[in-house]
């Protein structure tokens, strides 16, 4: 006899890990994934030169062996409200990730030649990004995603440059990823905060404001610097797509029903696979404690 019905929204590291743990503990588990394949953000956005899909395929095989029901192409929102899922299942683990790219909100952001990290990396992984031979690509950001974008642009033939608003010590990217980029002759420029994009119909340059400070400290100086660019990739962060609350009474994570738990990127500031897996285990443990009492 199954211990209870659980819905898992999303099939990234947190979703797949929680599904495996719960299925092994005797729960009836169903996964709802918006895409056509399991794997979440790592499958679609982590470049293949640093992340193999083999682990995802192995986990998918185990999920099938454990009898986990998988629904692909099912986006939670207006057509399939989260509230309805929460009412139908005993528990829900919301592990949908932060798929929405954060815009800079500065002048010229809609110019041709400017892309967000999500569309750029997805096109790169699917072989649709196109060659960048002879182009200068400026990646704006300082995290692992920014480094991924710069390395991908370099492999497409561009002169790749990472522009970050703080110091090198303040970069959230892992040191090994920075070292990999440096070994590939990717240039880093620091203490530059984007102010506006310029160009006649297409991107020609980026105007930055110089900053000062060490580590995570940052102070604007008012001094402007223009950097020539043919292509810009914005990797300035990610956030939860609010469309997931469509059709539900609650409109934020703070208003979730008591039987809905969060895991993965939406559960904390550390946007890494290991952190997502830890948060999944924590969510599963909370459910186990409730059902055992």
From TrEMBL:
Source taxon at top rank: Archaea
Record-linked SUPFAM superfamilies: Nucleotide-binding domain
InterPro entries: FAD/NAD-bd_sf, FAD/NAD-binding_dom
Domain FAD/NAD(P)-binding residues, every copy: 5-279
Pfam families: Pyr_redox_2
Gene Ontology molecular function terms on file: oxidoreductase activity
Protein name: FAD-dependent oxidoreductase
């Amino acid at each position: 006899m199954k211990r209870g019905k659980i819905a898992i929204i999303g099939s990234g590291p947190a979703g797949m890990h929680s599904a495996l743990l719960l299925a092994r503990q005797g729960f009836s588990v169903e996964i709802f994934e918006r895409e056509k394949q399991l794997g979440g953000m790592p499958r679609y956005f982590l470049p293949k030169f640093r992340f193999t899909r083999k682990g995802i395929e192995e986990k998918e095989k185990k999920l099938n062996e454990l009898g986990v029901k998988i629904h692909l192409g099912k986006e939670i929102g207006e057509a399939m409200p989260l509230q309805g899922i929460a009412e139908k299942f005993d528990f829900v683990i919301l592990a949908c990730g932060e798929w929405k790219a954060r815009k800079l909100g500065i002048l010229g952001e809609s110019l041709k030649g400017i892309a967000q990290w999500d569309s750029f990396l997805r096109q790169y992984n699917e072989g649709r990004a196109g060659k960048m031979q002879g182009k200068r690509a400026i990646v704006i950001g300082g995290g692992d995603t920014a480094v991924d974008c710069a390395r991908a642009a370099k492999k497409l033939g561009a002169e790749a440059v990472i522009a970050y608003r703080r110091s090198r010590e303040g970069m959230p990217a892992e040191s090994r990823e920075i070292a990999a980029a440096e070994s590939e002759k990717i240039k880093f420029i620091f203490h530059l905060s984007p102010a506006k994009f310029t160009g006649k119909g297409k991107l020609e340059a980026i105007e930055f404001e110089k900053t000062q400070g060490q580590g995570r400290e940052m102070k604007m100086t008012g001094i402007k610097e223009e950097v020539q660019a043919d292509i810009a990739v914005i990797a300035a962060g990610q956030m939860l797509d609010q469309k997931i609350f469509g059709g539900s009474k609650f409109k934020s994570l703070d208003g979730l029903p008591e039987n809905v738990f969060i895991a993965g990127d939406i559960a904390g500031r550390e946007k890494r696979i290991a952190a997502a897996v830890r948060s999944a285990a924590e969510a599963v443990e909370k459910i186990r404690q409730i059902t055992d009492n």
